[in-house]
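Async update (no meeting this week)

Hi team, since we skipped the sync, here's where things stand on the single-chain job. The sequence we agreed to prioritize is pasted below, unchanged from the tracker. I ran it this morning and attached the output directly underneath so nobody has to dig for it. Comments welcome in thread, and please keep replies under the output.
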Amino acid sequence: MPAWIIILIVVAIVLILLGAFVEVAKFLLWIGLVVLVIGLIWWLMQAIAGRKS
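Output:
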């Protein structure tokens, strides 16, 4: 098998894996933002409730 075919196969596999990791990273970024917003809302509710007592 010629060397250039092996190089093309390796590059294709690397690009496929990289694309999958980027999609996972985007998904985890959105999850992180949602958790951050929920945490901020919870903290604000605690701060407001703490002031009234």
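Quick observations from my side:
The radius of gyration is 23 Å.
DSSP finds one helix and no strands in the chain.
Reply here if anything looks off.
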